[in-house]
Structure formats: structure tokens, C-alpha cells
Amino acid sequence: MKRIRAFFEKQGFFIMLAVCAGIIVASGLWARSLNTEVKEPLADVSTEYAQRLADAEKLKMVRPVPATPQGESAEGALLGFSGAAWLPTLARWGAHEALDLPADRDAPASAARDGTVTAAYRDRLWGGVVEIAHADGLVTRYSALRWPAQVKAGDTVRAGQAIGAVGVAEAESDAPHVHFAAWLNGVPIDPAPHIVN
């Protein structure tokens, strides 16, 4: 036991120094391997995001309802695309990932682009709902329409073609409008910058 104690008293500093150096080197190698693993997915995500932005720049849409001056913001919507807003239809705060475009009751609501109707139904909260799949991974949805709609699932529509008439969502007392939502490759996008008229 005395020999061991004497050995560590003479050599203990160097042993501990070697152990610490080994830990530092091992930690550095481990951190480097993590850094390499993280860099690749981040590069893919930023490339995918850049592609998504480039795709969004190509998206041009027709305004789905005639413009009206009453109650509109500068963007022409009663309620715009936002991260947080009071949602009267749901009676709670949440993300408003759509535009509420004001229009006269019974005004025609039209397809924003050429596409195929993937769904047309009456919802307890949203009123009449029409969903259309377009080229380039774009999907648009029009809610708060009068029911029945003028189209059904499977119909092919052209940009500007009437798909229904403006109503009011069943759970709302708001002014007549169309709740206009869009997704690009499954990700909600703000339609406002893409509306050309």
C-alpha cells in the first residue's frame, strides 16, 4: 500500500494530466463528429427552404372574390395571415394562416388558379368549404361559402371560375367574407403577395 501511495505522490500529477488530456481529446473528437452530423441536415434544410421560396415566387393567384373597400386593411383583408390573432370562428386565440377577404354576400367566389377540386363539403363551423389542388404543390381552400357549392370533388376548374358564393361561416357574426388559405408542399403560406388582381 505504501508503494502505491508513494507512486501516486511522485507520478500522480502526470497521471491526472494524462487522464485530463485524454478526456479533452475525446471530447473534441466527439464534438467534431456531432458538428459533421449536424452540418449536413442543416445544409439540406436551407436548400429546401431556398427552393420553397423560389417556388413561392412563381405562384400567381387570381383574387378569389371581387375587391370591396369596406372594412379592408391595406392588404385588402379583414384579417390577414398572422402568427397570432383572435379567431372568432373558433372563439380562441391562434395562428391565422389564411386571409379573410371581404365580399358582398352571394358574390361569386372563384378558383385562384387552374386545378382539381379535391374536396367540397359543408362544415359545422366553416360553412361551405372547397379545396383545390394546383400544379407546383399548391393547395388552396375557400371557406365561409354558401352551401351547396357549385363544384364537387373531382371537378377541374380554371383560374377565375366560380366555385361557389360568399356566405358567412356558421359560427361567425362577422361580415361576409371568404377565408382563403394556401399551402405549398404542405406548408401554410401567405396568399397575399401572390394575388395579382
Describe it for me?
The chain is an alpha+beta fold and 197 residues long. It contains one helix and eleven strands, in the order H-E-E-E-E-E-E-E-E-E-E-E. The longest helix is centred in the first third of the chain and has 57 residues. About 3% of the residues have low confidence.
Tag the structure with descriptive keywords.
seven-stranded antiparallel β-sheet; two-stranded antiparallel ribbon; 11 strands; 29% helix; 197 residues; alpha+beta; 1 helix
Percent helix, as a range, is 25-40%
**Beta-strand content bin:** 25-35%
Give the terminus-to-terminus CA distance: 91 Å
Characterize the quaternary organization of these chains. single chain
SS-derived structural category: alpha+beta
| Average residue-wise pLDDT | 79
Query: Largest sheet at a glance?
Result: 7 strands, antiparallel
Low-confidence stretches: 71-75
- Count of extended strands: 11
Given the C-alpha coordinates, what overall shape results? elongated
Measured on Cα atoms, how large is the radius of gyration? 29 Å
User: What's the SSE pattern?
Assistant: HEEEEEEEEEEE
* Total DSSP helices: 1
Give a summary of the structure in a few sentences.
With 197 residues, the chain is α+β, with helices and mostly antiparallel strands.
Question: What's the SSE blueprint?
Answer:
Layout: H1 2-58, E1 82-87, E2 92-96, E3 99-102, E4 108-110, E5 115-123, E6 127-133, E7 138-145, E8 156-157, E9 162-165, E10 177-184, E11 187-189
Antiparallel strand pairs: 1-2, 3-10, 4-9, 5-6, 5-8, 6-7, 7-10, 10-11
